[in-house]
Amino acid sequence: MAPNQDQLYDSVPPIPTYDEAVASGSAWHHDVAISPVDHSHHTTEAEAEGQSLLTHSRHAFESTSTNHSHAQGRRPRGYRPPTVETDDDSSLFSSDGDSDSDDEREADQVRREMQELEIDDSDVHGRNQSSWGKRIGLSLPQWRWKWRWRLPTLRRRSVGGSGSDNAAHERAPEGEEGSGSSWLSRARPLSLPKFGSTALFLLVGRTMALFIIMGFFYLLFASDLWSDMARRMGSQMFDPESIRIHVQSSVNARRIRTHLEHFTSYAHLAGTAGDYALMEDTEMLFAKYGLEDVRRDVFEVYLNYPTAQGRGVEIWEEGGKMAWAAQLEEEEAGERSSGRQTFAFHGHSKSGDVQGRLIYANYGSKKDFQALKDRGIDTNGAIVLVRHYGPQEDLALKVKTAEEAGAIGCITFTDPSDNGFVKGTEAPKGRFLPADGVQRGAVSLTSWVVGDPLTPGWGSKDNLPRMKVSEARGLVKIPSIPLAWRAAQGLLQRLKGCGQLVPEEWVGGVPDVGEWWTGNGSSPVVRLKNEQDEVEKQPIWNVYGRIAGIEQEEKKVIIGNHRDSWAFGAADPHSGTAIMLEIIRVLGDVVARGWRPLRTIEFASWDASEYNLMGSTEYVEHNDEALREDALAYINLGKAVSGRTFHAAGSPVFRKLLLQVLNRVSDPHYNATLRERWDERKGRIEGLGVDSDYVAFQDIVGTSSLDLHFDGDRFPHRSSYENFEWMDNVGDPGFVYHALLGQVLGLLILELADRPVMPFDMVAYADDLTRWVKGLKSWAQKRPDAAAKRVSFDALELAAQDVGKSVREFGNWESNWESSILSAGGWEPSGLGRQRCEYNARMAQFETDLLDLDGIPGRTQFKHVVFGPQAWSRNPDAHFPGIRDAIESGNATLAQLTVDKVASIMKQAANNLVK
Question: Which residues does the UniProt record annotate as the domain PA (predicted)?
Fold first, then answer.
């Protein structure tokens, strides 16, 4: 590491001249002896090396100049002025002229060797603090290492004659011949010292010292000890506030734009050549920007891919003649560096070629299908046409609902009243889908089985068991395909006069349809063809890299973003990819300057997220025990920037920290901080659904998770129009909000990974639990079924109260810790440091303790008793999914048992906090 002005080491004092060293009354001779007063002075200096954690200080960047000026007026430790007899090393072996005895020469040699080996221990005696403690001022230990880089001199002693004669011999040029013999012939032979003599003792001692020194250097340079020591020492030079300022000011919108342009330059479905190429780029950039232990992780999962001639939507007349065919593909949305646009298809859709009568089913919710049934419209054997969005936004649940209603195929489309010209200007000049825009997506049942549907509950590694595709509960059983509204228009027009006129709320914005009809047995026959390539063990590639922590290396804060996309993925996922890479670059730069966090920061690029969140889920399932033990927090950047309004969804523990960070980040378009904009719209941390890669962390291993994004009106999501040009011109011109989210992310990472006490808002969690229990009770009492009204929530309410009491008692420790640090002038004994680490671990463990390891009945992957999806709903604010599922089943006994079990788990989590 190159030295810089931030280093806290003592400045090297100037070396005195010979005259200064021997002159009487000089400043150097004035400090030869270290008196008790000097000891006191050094104690004061040691105490000044740290600073209090509880105050913002500039000492870290001022200490260098302070130490240097102090060093100018004192003698360097370990310095010994030369003697006035001679400065010739050979004199150490010569006679003083008064005595030629071996004993006197040996005694003189011993005295001189002891002077050579003299060790300065002023630093040890000058400190009155325990060697097991550390300062807290910079949020890192303030250790200093003072070495006296001086070794004993090893010299060959003459066998006979004076030292001057020896010196004369040694100065003779090699090969020179004299009158009687050569220089070599005049050299006296060496002889071993006598047994029991002081010389033998010195020889043995020197040999042992040599081996010790060699071992010491091996330990430093041939092992990891030196790099670890240097890492710890270098971390002391940075003040936390200076790091915050540096990270925030270093986020570069231009670099983010460059990364986004590259990652959106060609299509890259999971498992394809484009995806593999971006994986290699990600791996290279992780290493280039300074992450350690960069590696790829391969899983083998079930994927499907569309074929050029394998898909079709057609209307057939009587007699087997095709009357109409839908245009499936979008117009080319711009030149790409390689490859072509992705075909329009549904991930994890069922292969098939089916024909049936066409039925329009609005948004495809259970309520919509029930309305058709009530009107006498038979959906058995039908091909149903449904809209995206609506009260049931989950694409897979739309298809599953159609399947359970007896349909044999499902066609989805985006109505312009939801995302199109009815809402505003279309892409590429505006935010909304044009007439040919197709929204792709997966129809795997994420709310039922997340990750690889063939390995629910364990990682998809080679040689591990796999289910058959036909047995996978997480896959739908009917084929489906997406269309643009221009293609759906042809279908809707041909339904006129078939069945019944639809309710007014079912009428969409597709132009030139006229009357909207439901369809029935007299509807035209539609052929839905969806023949595809299916790969049961397709490799996918996650990429990981980290910055190791110096205090709790095993504990980690994880930041993740997926890399695969349905098309080019400018907003989802690569706005997050570009931001994550920029933060890696900024943090890597700080690490290169010597900074280290207390806890490990790990970055992950997930693959196959668009297919049922596979990459992140398989990682979590393969490492579930380790993550439950050591994962402190997970921050997700799935769909990071698509507008100007900041949103956060996640665990309440992030509330206080998030608001502090938002206070530091200013929005130039509104001349206000993000906190002011947040308060203006009465923002809150929203609930987590099943939309991105936080699902496995929050719901399977209980890692407190946070999803961050700027959004606004709808945009051409998952279409070929969600490309770099759209983001550059419409989504975020100038990449202002990319840079703002980068600042938010960087500051969050610093606080979570480097604050001595984790900044979790446990009181906010307790308060929200109480509020959520009341909301659950109110929801149950408003239901029309009698079974829900028989369920008692008393145990759950008492458990929420217990959590509140325990959280407040738990928080007292932090107050006591702060008082101890203040009273000790910023010094933290090692025992208190261990308690602090245990306190942090227990704080993070609270979320994990809210897991029911048996899982929700029928959906055992989902183990969190508070967060998670319901079986038939993606409402992120519907907490306690297991209880809600049980109540909706109509089984009052099961519902009561579930309430009591959840209450017991909450009570135990509260007890674990204060045990």
Answer: 354-442
**Which of 4-8, 330-334, 635-639 shows the highest mean pLDDT?**
635-639
Name the fold adopted by 764-914. Transcription Elongation Factor S-II; Chain A (1.20.930)
The CATH architecture to which 240-299+542-758 belongs is: 3-Layer(aba) Sandwich (3.40)
For tokens 């969600």, name the residue: 722
Q: Determine the Cα–Cα distance for residues 517 and 496; give it in Å rounded to an integer.
A: 6
End-to-end CA distance of the chain: 44
Rounded-to-integer distance, Cα 694 and Cα 708, Å: 11
In order of 489, 566, 851, 882, the CA distances from 871 in angstroms are 32, 25, 18, 9
- Give tens-digit pLDDT for 218-262: 655 554 444 444 444 444 567 899 999 999 999 999 999 999 999
Provide the whole-model pTM. Answer: 0.77
CA distances from 538 to 76, 299, 480, 541, 552 (A): 66, 8, 22, 10, 36
Angstrom distance (rounded) from CA 745 to CA 732: 18
CA 728 to chain centre: 27
Q: How far is it, in rounded angstroms, from Cα 208 to Cα 257? A: 61
How many other C-beta atoms can be found within 10 angstroms of the C-beta atom of residue 524? 18
| C-alpha dihedral, 665 to 668 to 672 to 674, nearest 10° | -40
Mean pLDDT across the stretch 156-166?
A: 40
Spatial distance between the Cα atoms of 734 and 728, rounded to a whole number of angstroms = 7
Q: What is the pLDDT of residue 166?
A: 41
pLDDT at 500: 96
- Say which residue, 787 or 24, is predicted with more confidence: 787
Task: Please state the rounded mean pLDDT for residues 27-46.
Answer: 36
> Band of the pLDDT at 317, cuts 50, 70, 90?
confident
- Amino acid 655 reads R
Which tokens go with 217? 């250097």
Contact assessment for residue 857 and residue 872, using Cβ atoms and an 8 Å cutoff: no
Tell me how far apart the alpha carbons of residues 77 and 100 are, in angstroms, rounded to a whole number: 36
Selected from 3.50.30.30, 1.20.1090.10, 3.40.50.1980, 3.40.50.1100, the CATH number assigned to the domain covering 301-534 reads 3.50.30.30
- Phi/psi of residue 68, each to 5°? -65, -45
Query: CA 803 to CA 299: how far, in whole Å?
Result: 39
pLDDT, tens only, 544-594: 999 999 999 999 999 999 999 999 999 999 999 999 999 999 999 999 999
Q: Which residues of 819-856 are buried (b: 16+ CB within 10 A; e: fewer)?
A: eebeebebbbeeebbebbbebbbbbbbbbbbbbbeebb
pLDDT tens for each residue of 135-149: 554 343 332 233 333
